[in-house]
Amino acid sequence: xxxxxALFTALFLTxxxxxxxxxxxxxxxxxxxxxxxxxxxxxxxxxxxxPNLVYRIVDERVLPHFDFxxxxxxxxGVNWRRATPAQQAAFIREFRSxxxxxxxxxxxxxxxxxxxxLPLRPEADPxxxxxxxEIQPKAGPSIPVxxxxxxxxxxxxxxxxxxxxxxLVTNYRTTFNQDIQxxxxxxxxxxxxxxxxxxxx
Length: 201
Known about the structure:
Elements: H1 2-6, H2 8-13, H3 25-42, H4 44-49, H5 51-61, H6 68-76, H7 78-82, H8 85-107, E1 114-117, E2 128-136, E3 143-152, E4 155-163, E5 166-167, H9 168-196
Antiparallel strand pairs: 1-2, 2-3, 3-4, 4-5
Helix pairs in contact: 5-8, 6-9, 8-9
C-alpha cells in the first residue's frame, strides 16, 4: 500500500483522460498529462500551501474521466451486490474522496519524473484499452504503470490502474474485504469517512 501511495503522484498525472472518441486513448493520456504537468510547474509554490488548488486541478482534469461506479463494483466484488443502494452511493463518494486525498498528499512530492508511453496494443474488445507507460525517476529503474480504460458511448474512462504489476483495484479489494469481514459495510464507510476527514483510519 505504501508503495502505491508513493507512486500516486506520477500515476494521477497521467490519468486525466479527455474524452474524444476519435482520438486514441494513449494520445489522450499523453496530451492531458502534458497539460497537468504544465499546471503543476506553473503553480508549484501555491500547490504546497493551497490544498484547494490541488482539488480544483483534480476535479477539472482527472475525476471526470474516472468511472468510480465501475471501480467501486470491482473493488467491493461480491460485497457490492450485498450492499444497499444507500451503502453503494456512500462508498462511491468516500472512495472517490480517498483517491483525491491520496493524490493531494503526494502531489507535493512530484519531482519531475519522466513518462514514457509504450505503443498501444489492440484489444479483443474495441471498447477496452490498456495504456502502458513507464515512470522514469531521476534515479533507479523505471516503473511500469498500466491504465485500463473502457469506452462508454463516446467517452473513455479509467477503471483500474496497475503499478509495477500491482492492480489498484485488486489491492484495495483485498484491504476492503478484510475490513468488511471485521467491521461490516457500514463500518468500512465510517472508517473511510474518518480517513477523509483527516481523523485517521
